[in-house]
Amino acid sequence: MKTKFFYPWLTAALLASISGIAQEKVVVDSTKVTALDEILVASIRVDDKTPIAYSNLSKKELAKRNLGQDIPSLMNFMPSVVMTTDAGNGVGYSSIRVRGSDATRVNVTLNGIPYNDGESQGTFWVNMPDFTSSIQNLQLQRGVGTSTNGSAAFGASLNLLTDSYSYKSNGEISNSFGSYNTRKHTVKFSTGLMNDHFEIAGRLSNIHSDGYIDRATSDLKSYFLQGTYLGKTTLIKALAFGGSQKTYQAWNGLEDPDKLENHRRFNTSGVYYDDQGTMRFYDNETDNYKQDHFQLHWNERWSSRWTSNMALHYTIGEGYYENYKVNGKFAEYGLSPIIVDGKEVKKSDIIRQKWLENDFYGFTFSANYKTDRLDVIIGGAANKYEGEHYGTILWIKQPVKYEYNQKYYDDNALKTDLNSYVKATYQVTNKWSLFGDVQFRKVQYKANGVETGNVNDSFDFFNPKAGITYQVNEQNQGYFSYARANREPNRNDYKDGNPKPEKLNDFELGWRYRSPIATINVNAYYMRYKDQLVLTGALNDVGAPIRENSGDSYRLGLEVDATVRLQEKIYWNPSVTLSKNRNIDFHTEWNGELVNLGNTNIAFSPSFIGSNVLTYVPIKGMNISWLAKFVGEQYMGNVDMEKSKLDAYFVNDISMTYEFPVKGWFQSVGFSVLANNIFDVKYLSNGFYYTYDEVANETVSTQEGAGYYPQATFNILAGVTLKF
Known about the structure:
By secondary structure, this protein is mostly beta strands. The protein has a single domain (6-723), classed as TonB-dependent receptor, beta-barrel domain (Maltoporin, Chain A), CATH 2.40.170. The protein is built from 6 helices and 42 strands. A hairpin with a 5-residue loop joins β13 and β14 (279-281). It is globular, with a radius of gyration of 26 Å. The protein starts with 5 loop residues before the first helix and ends with a strand.
């Protein structure tokens, strides 16, 4: 176990270091403020001069629907994004897929620091509740994107910039309530720049929800603390943030067709039967985790052309999930069979815990040289992940000899990740600009234990990127880019097989239109994979997706998104993605034989994704939006079987916000209402599909199974925010 007093000690040390610097009297140059703050993410972000498809969400846009749901829910209406949530209502375990690629293949950074878990490569937003309240803005780059820190982007890269500093002291209290006993309470403060140089800001949040799915409760707590020193050419930030969560498990899904039709909120997690055969539910079938992040950033403007950023970071996590395992096999727990009433017993009901303790630390750096025509960035990172996995036994139904909290496995893992990159944009003429990007990445992963076996893999990746942009006129711009990416397998891949690293060649062709009343983006992509680790549709024993190398595969698509001012008070934000996603000459075992199914659909890759946001601004400070999302049918496996098909769905929401100034104690009062799924649609956004063999009369017959994650029908959230 990690020593708990270390957390506040490190936070105090980081803030004290800034306080010491703040004693120096420096005149603030206000023209440099925004540039200094943006240096944190400038090395990995793109703009209209970069030949890459991207979308931004500002703090104001995020705030409209920030009523307790996770970040994936707030990103649901971005191009090519599909969101799903285990509990059904966007609180707890939620995730996104971009262009059909799951969350393990979306590179996520927080202020340029990698957030994806070192081993699973997943992003678990449930560990950072209400982080949206501390985000200044976010950018989603689709495809490979530009070089970034952490694992390669195979579907998209998402980078988030946390709150900027404030010149004036301020505070905020927000509370929201809604369906399924959902509530969020947030308190924020900022001292403003003291002596024009030093600011302390923070946030505390508490979120609770019973969930749409039975017993899918979430109890979430989080904090955010930031110390800032601002000089004439210097910005130093120390951040400490994190959260703790306790969620009742809902990752099993629902397989029973009758319950899916008549009791779609039924949760199979924790189900067991007592000695009388009565169904009961284990009350502590929960996931419990605490994670703390520490970051120290130094941004410097050395001259009108040179800027730099250096950052140190440390993340510590610890937690477990507990569950009631029906008919657990003794052999899997290192226990011997026993004799009961003259019969040998090899299995019994068992209550177990599976623990994870991990540390992730390292540094990142970047230097930027910029002139009127040339923009060069040199950067890189060195990071290390240390993980300990172990399981303990709490109780066994049969009279088996064991010790309480007895370990039945103990695995260790170590991963190092080194990368360096150089990227440049050169304005050849007033119309033509060139983009180049080269990254070298070295990864070493070691693990030993019952779950993974002995792993000692090392990878050396070379990832070049290049593109060209043509500015037709002030309103029209065209671009083309090519990017190469390589990616290592994750921990679960080693558990489930003998995986190969993935390779991707990404081609992007686009057009951008900008005018005072409309912004239009059109992007075509062709992503050609070698040994892509596609989702099989099946889940392992902790609800994590199982993947396998598919050989050759591709994703071909067209993305269109726009912002149009239809009238002075009406705005329209549509997006459409049309795509074709195929495994080439896909082979699989069926009825005991290896068969070639030809070109099959890649799992969880709908060929049509559309969203529509229509906003009406009747008076200053008020917004009324109609939000619609359509996701076409998709297969949950790679074998194109009817049983693996997930039906299309179309869902509509209504959002209303109104903020107005007041006199007295508060600066303004804001009201928000979010009505989700207003037409009460019973839809399924996610599921799983698996096959197994039955043998009868020496004949092998492949059987299929499928399960689903029902999403919430009509529900509502409402909140009030007081700013002072």
